[in-house]
Amino acid sequence: MSKQRGDLEKFLKNVDEISTLVKELNSSSECCQKKAIENSDRLLASWKQEEPSKTQLNRTVINTKSPQHDTAPTGLKNDSDMSSVNFMKILEKDAEDRAERRKKNEEIAYGASSV
């Protein structure tokens, strides 16, 4: 736990240093900007010499539960043994249903626009 606390303190110190460097780089004074560039180069060099932090967190989650709702099209269940003939029948019925709905919607749309 103390190593994590030390890593956190080190991280926060680095954040403060970077914040200061960014403010100096945004300064209108060229002298201040040059000084900030030199300091940033030193900071980067010191980070390369140090050992990188080993603190990591893996939040990978694998969903092992099957979905609660049925995502299959109407009339089509998760049946891997379904024949191609049955599949085509279901597909044709679905296409007919969609065509009927589209025709009704067009009648409603054109009927409402002519009024």
Automatic annotation (TrEMBL):
Compositional bias segments (type: Basic and acidic residues): 95-107
Q: Where is the composition biased (Polar residues)?
A: 62-71
Q: Name one GO cellular component term.
A: cytoplasm
Native organism is Synaphobranchus kaupii
Origin superkingdom: Eukaryota
Protein name from the UniProt record = Uncharacterized protein
Coiled-coil features, chain-numbered ranges:
none
Region listing for Disordered, in residue ranges:
62-83, 95-115
**Alphabetically, which GO biological process terms does the record hold?**
axonemal dynein complex assembly; sperm axoneme assembly
